[in-house]
């Protein structure tokens, strides 16, 4: 199974949209996008999610956990994608400072 990540083989195909997957589990999760199934519930607000990963990210809104820190200004974020987006603002700020001098 691990070898598929090196060979690019994707033997599992979605019967709805024909997207292919290397692992059956990934196909099963993908199928929820077509069925709308959301088997994972938040115990705090009861919002439903398609994957346990999405639920774990959501739970941070209730716990206040922010494990991702900006290396420039030390602002913290609950999701790495928000940290990366924020980090680009520092790059833009530096470019603006250079062009205004």
Strand order in the sheet with the most strands: 1-2
Rg, Å, rounded: 20 Å
Tell me, briefly, the overall form: flat
Strand content: 5-15%
Task: Tell me the helix content.
Answer: 40-55%
Q: Segments where pLDDT lies below 50 for 5+ residues? A: none
How does the helix and strand content classify structurally? mainly alpha
- How many DSSP H or I helices? 4
Major sheet description:
2 strands, antiparallel
* String of helices and strands: HEEHEEHEEH
Global mean pLDDT: 90
Q: How many runs of DSSP E, i.e. beta strands? A: 6
Distance between the termini: 56 Å
Keywords: DNA-binding, Metal-binding, Nucleus, Repeat, Transcription, Transcription regulation, Zinc, Zinc-finger
GO cellular component, one term: nucleus
Domain C2H2-type: 12-39, 40-67, 68-95
Subcellular location: Nucleus
Task: Considering the chains and any ligands shown, give keywords for the structure.
RNA polymerase II cis-regulatory region sequence-specific DNA binding, Double Stranded RNA Binding Domain, mainly alpha, zinc, 4 helices, single chain, zinc ion binding, repeat, two-stranded antiparallel ribbon, about 100 residues
Please summarize what this structure is.
This protein is 49% helix and 12% strand.
